[in-house]
Amino acid sequence: MSVEQVPVQRADFDQVMVPNYAPAAFIPVRGQGSRVWDQSGRELVDFSGGIAVNVLGHAHPALVGALTEQANKLWHVSNVFTNEPALRLAKKLVDATFAERVFFCNSGAEANEAAFKLARRVAHDLYGTEKYQIVAALNSFHGRTLFTVSVGGQPKYSEGFGPKITGITHVPYNDLQALKAAVSDKTCAVVLEPIQGEGGVLPAELEYLQGARKLCDEHNALLVFDEVQSGMGRSGHLFAYMHYGVTPDILSSAKSIGGGFPMAAMLTTEKLAKHLSVGVHGTTYGGNPLACAVGEAVIDVVNTPQVLAGVNAKHELFKARLQKIGQQYGVFSQVRGMGLLIGCVLTDAWKGKAKEFFNAAEHEGVMILQAGPDVVRFAPSLVIEDADINEGLDRFERAVAKLTKA
Ligand SMILES: Cc1ncc(COP(=O)(O)O)c(C=O)c1O
Fold it and tell me: What integer pLDDT is reported at residue 3 of this predicted model?
């Protein structure tokens, strides 16, 4: 028996949805690889990847296969029981990273919530009630729960909801002296994105992360890397910390880890994990068999030399062309980022107008992203075909040409 589908349009959004989003004027209905089709049959090149989520594009056969196979077996059992896909995926993550223990959840915010709660719990158990300060970066983004907006360094997301979580200090990113001044023996954790994503696609400097690691060790604080956006291959390494050679104590992963199926994970060591003993933290859906079956297929495909090397080669393709467009039309002062997380910083003349680039690109049939008002962001599939990159950038260039002419 099929479910009756009533016709819907973009205008319905404003009638039935909470107005916290302002989605584009069209509704995507189908995706294949790095192409998407809307209700009218119009085809677009997808450089947005569902905000750095669809690491393997749309309808990748390995992911579709894993999901449908699991859908016919077992959907959900809760954490009153464990399940095979969750255990297999956890083993793969442990084998591939610094981590010895995994906690599964459903979103980046939840992975960070778990990370921050673990950091405070460890300090509480080992050092008492006074060690709870968290040092985080200005302009950082860690999610939308009250704890994660409080740790995030963007007041526009944390203000207006009553008292925030206290005990959090924000310092300028990539400023080691400021970090040194903020960290003390009362610090339980330093929280950083190795590449600030929403804050403008800004990679950390090596000395900064090395310095953060040293400060944490000196003050018995934990180093937490939020790799929700930079992780699972997007940087050209499985996780960005591997590029820097700086190992965190706790790492949060989401977005790409499920390739488009909602899932997330917090990774840590055995020594720290034991502080989350039975009943201390939890979630109904975390480690759901459907999500973990897809996650397994994602890591199997992504964590291969071909895919990771491909990310770096595709980065060069994007960068060379975007720099050229930036120069020719005077729109970008810098093209930065790592792997397939690329940010084009707008010149003074175009500052604040990233949304206009988004709209112009959409009109030419290419989906892109902003990272704040001053940066145009690209986060495509890691296996996007070179032909799609070229076609999408042709369309993007036409959009920039029209925008600058207007
Ligand atoms: C670095 C980072 N952390 C956390 C989050 C929150 O993830 P989610 O929206 O899945 O809760 C995001 C989302 O953009 C992010 O980029």
Answer: 86
Residue closest via CA to ligand 1's atom 13 equals: 143
Q: How far is CA 389 from the centre of its chain?
A: 21
- C-alpha distances out from residue 99 to 192, 240, 252, Å: 17, 14, 11
pLDDT digits (tens, 9 = 90+) for 316-359: 999 999 999 999 999 999 999 999 999 999 999 999 999 999 99
What pTM, to 2 d.p., does this model score? 0.98
Distance 340 CA to ligand 1 centre (A): 17
pLDDT band at 57 (very low <50, low <70, confident <90, very high): very high
Mutate to test the pocket of ligand 1, among 110, 198, 227, 234 (most ligand atoms within 8 A of CB): 198
196 close to ligand 1 (CB < 6 Angstrom): no
Q: Closest ligand 1 atom to the C-alpha of 148?
A: 4
Confidence of residue 1 (pLDDT cuts 50, 70, 90): low
The finding on whether 234 has its CB within 6 A of some atom of ligand 1 is: no
406: pLDDT confidence band, cut at 50, 70 and 90? Answer: confident
Q: Where in the chain is the domain with CATH 3.40.640.10?
A: 74-302
Separation CA 13–CA 399 (nearest Å): 27
pLDDT, averaged across the chain: 98
Q: Please work out whether the CB of residue 70 comes within 6 Å of at least one atom of ligand 1.
A: no
136 pocket-lining for ligand 1 (C-beta < 6 Å): no
Give just the sign of the alpha carbon dihedral 15, 16, 22, 23. Answer: negative
To test the ligand 1 pocket, which listed residue (145, 147, 229, 338) has its Cβ within 8 A of the most ligand atoms?
229
Beta strands 195-196 and 187-192, pairing class: unpaired
Give pLDDT, residue 399. Answer: 98
Å from CA of 108 to ligand 1 middle: 5
For residue 196, which atom of ligand 1 is closest to its CA?
1
CATH 3.40.640.10 for the 74-302 domain, yes or no: yes
Determine contact, residues 343/369, Cβ cutoff 8 Å. no
Task: Tell me whether residue 79 is exposed, middle or buried, using C-beta atoms within 10 angstroms of its C-beta: 0 to 12, 13 to 18, 19 or more.
Answer: middle
Nearest CA owner, ligand 1 atom 3: 142
User: Which CATH architecture does the domain made up of 10-60+305-405 adopt?
Assistant: Alpha-Beta Complex (3.90)
Question: With 90 as the cut, is the pLDDT of residue 278 above it?
Answer: yes
Give the relative orientation of helices 289-302 and 84-96 as an angle to the nearest 10 degrees: 30
**Two structure tokens written together for 295:** 């996650």
